Structure formats: C-alpha cells, structure tokens
Amino acid sequence: MAVEHFDVLIVGAGISGIGAGRYLKTELPAKTFAILEARAASGGTWDLFRYPGTRSDSDLHTFGYAFKPWLDQEAIASAPRILAYLRETATENGLDPHIRYHHRVRAAAFDSETALWTVMVDRAGEPVTFTARWLFCAGGYYRYDEGFTPHFEGRDRFEGTIVHPQHWPADLDYAGKRVVVVGSGATAVTIVPAMAGTAAHVTLLQRTPTYILSMPTKDAIGNALKKYLGPERGHAWTRRKNITMQRTIWRFCQRHPDRARRVIRWLNARSLPEGYPVDEHFRPPYNPWDQRLCLVPDGDLFAAIRAGTAEMVTDRIETFTEQGIRLASGRDLAADIIVTATGLRVQALAGVTLTVDGAPVSIPDTIAYKGMMLSGVPNFAFVVGYTNSSWTLKVGLLCEHFCLLLAHMDKHGYEICRPAPADPAMPTRPFLDFGAGYIRRVIDELPRQGDRLPWRTSMHYHTDVKLLRADRVTDPELHFGRRTQESVSTASSIGKGSVSRNT
C-alpha cells in the first residue's frame, strides 16, 4: 500500500486542530495537510463530555476564534452550542474532507536525511503509515480515554452507581436520587447546579475549597456592540474588552492577593444565605489564581445552595460505605449516585512517542521554544493554550506564527527547522507555573521552560502578540537548513537539550 504524504499532519480535530487547519488553509493554501482524529467525531472536549450542564468556563468571545464571530447571545455557552460553532467553522473553511476519523497517532520518527516524519497510526485497529514534512500536535493536554480517579477506600462496598464525568452514561437516571459529587473544580461546580433541579438532593464534597466567581451568562456590552457595530466589528471589540478584563483580574490577583481574596469572599457572601459559613467552604489555603478560578454563570451554584437543593461539605473521605460515604469527621453522606469529579489525566503531546534519527526523544529533557516547539526536535510544533485566560487566545497566535515559519522556510528553500538553546546550561523550571493538582501529578513528564524568552513559556497575551505576530521568525537559537546540511548536525544535537532542573 502506498504511503500517503502531506506537508503537515495535524494531530487532533478539537478546537486547536480545527483552528490550525483553518490557518493553514487560509494562509498557506498550497500546503497539503490532514487532520488525524482518534475518535469518531470532531470537536474534542466539546463532543466527549456529556455530563449535565457541560459548558465553557471562559467567554466565547475570547474562547472562540478571532476570525469567526461568536453570534450567540450567551457568552458562557453550553457544550452543544460550542460544538456546533466548531463544526460550522470546519465546514465553512472546507476542512471536513481533511479530517480522518478513527486515526490514532501512536509514534512518529524523523529522518534528517529525508527531512521527513514517518508517522505510525492506528486506523480503527489497522496499522497505517503516513509521511509529512511537519508534525503539528493539537491533541490537547489530557487523555480522552481515561479520567483521573484517586483510590477510595471501600469503593467496592458502595451499592449505588459511581460515575466519572468524562465517561457519563447516556442512560443515567438521577431524578429523585441522592447525589454526592466529589471534587471542587470547574466540572464539579458545573454538575451540581445542573443536577440540583432534578435530583432529590446534591452534595458537593470537597477536600479543599476553590475560588469561585459568578459571571453573567450574557455579555450585555458585547451584545450591544455586535448589534450596533455589526457581528465582525462588535465581536472584535468585545474580544479586546474581555482580553483586557481577564488580564486585569489576573494581575490584580497576582499583585494584591490579600485584597483579591477579600473581594472574592465579599462577593461570595453576598450570594449565599445570611450566616452561611463562607470561610469553611469558600476560602482556599492558596492565593487567587495560583490555581484557575472557577466561574459559575449567573451564580447558579449559589442559587442552588440558597434553594436548599444543593449543599457544600468540606471534609476528607474516610471510606465509601454500602449506602454512601463516611467522612473523617464521622459524618455519613447517604448517596444513590457518587460522581467522581476528581480531574483529568494529563499527558504530553497526545501520548505520541517521538524519535529523531533513531534516538528516542525524552520529553522531560527538552525545553519548549516559544511555547510551541521542542529543543532538538526538528519540524515539530505543538499547542498548549493559556491557563490564566481563554485557551484559544494562545492557540490562534501559535497557529499564525506556525504559518509565518513555514512561509519563511519556503521563501528561503529550507527543509529543516530545529530550535536549540545557545546555553546548554540555561536554568529551567516546569513548563507550566501552575498549582493545579492535575498538572502537579505529571509535571516531571512535561517539557521544561527556560529563564528567558524565547524559552520561557509566556502566559501573557500581549507579550505573545509581540513575540508570535512579528513578521520576522528568525532567531539565533532557531536553526534552519537543508537535508544535506542537517543530516549530521541534527542527530548530534539531540542530547544537547538536556536541562538543568532548577525549580
């Protein structure tokens, strides 16, 4: 069977992969590409998650694409609306024929003599091979086939139903049932109010509180701007407004954590019943934005607590019992259904194994260049969005820069592009400076970042605009060449990405 060849292979047909395909199609229409999707449908997260109330926790004017206005009145949108938006984007930009479903990328090997990636793929159980000049990993940051569930003592004793949100059964009937949701992150605070109107009672059981802020579902100013300026200009101005707002809130929390904590507490107390133990359930031991803030649209979680259909409990689990959960305090929580909203399993680069000229690439021993390439790894790019604002803001910038990079190589006849730090002893630290548990669990499996640009992972949109939208992509630490020039030097430099692990 003939091996198919493409200029670019994109891994993943979620929000990042669809965005990457659109930029390639628009900016470099002569490039051939395919989008390899392991699942049977596009949309990534927004097709996978089916738990009650699945929605964004960022506004769609910034979480959506810059090139496609978000026209819905609701800025905090449900998963079906986001999924429809993504698939409409793919269709409008002619991407549907480029998407290959049931194609799970297992491994990729780069050969400097041919300047090609050979990509090993599982196609519905059948091994197939592709070749490509570039590999672009847009597969997200977590495992789609398995969520994270810690060990719970006595789990097998429970006589009811246990479900993880990542694998929500379509036929789960919780009407009139007692539900305990274990967790304190965005998924838990989404599920609780969504189930509270139907279940007999819902308890959110958390070990540690999370900062929670209420946000209007509808952006009144944004909707007015779109009405009077038109959809494209209105979307653009609303996007600028919300980027500024996100950045302002984040900076305030970073610079004045004590004041930010007091403001958040005051807002929470206003939304909760009089005399409610705010500090017990809504006062985390860390500073705001050391972990991501959870948003609740129109204060729906607080409304469920006020109505008495939902309850917050802050305690530790001693054991599961036949009828529910026994807490360290001795209290028993009766349950018919337990939802383990305990997080994601993060994995680097969609789990793809990389080799360069026969040498395995150790991801933790690489350093991220501009947050999108790996030291010593040629013709490879990946996408990781922001942790302190909307994911897609960075995705768009990275895709733009990727197209500029490919155009530069075409103009000068280059076939290979490889980042390498000028100082092999450059101090490094974890790729993501973020305290969330799902990141801390795998921090030693991720790339590192350096102590300066372009090796520092920026989480600042305006910094990245300057870095990634610049017309000039050349850099002393980004090496271009042709096959005859690179066949030896690329292989010999793979070990030079070894890092000094300063945390």
TrEMBL record:
Classification via InterPro entries: FAD-binding_MO (IPR051820), FAD/NAD-bd_sf (IPR036188), Flavin_mOase-like (IPR020946)
Compositionally biased residues, Polar residues: 486-503
Keywords from the UniProt entry: FAD, Flavoprotein, Monooxygenase, Oxidoreductase
UniProt-annotated stretches for the region Disordered: 479-503
Requisite cofactors: FAD
Cross-referenced Pfam families: FMO-like (PF00743), NAD_binding_8 (PF13450)
SUPFAM superfamilies, A to Z: FAD/NAD(P)-binding domain
Taxonomy, superkingdom: Bacteria
GO molecular function, one term: monooxygenase activity
Record Gene3D superfamilies: FAD/NAD(P)-binding domain
Family: Belongs to the FAD-binding monooxygenase family.
Protein name, entry field: Flavin-binding monooxygenase
Species this chain originates from: Asanoa iriomotensis
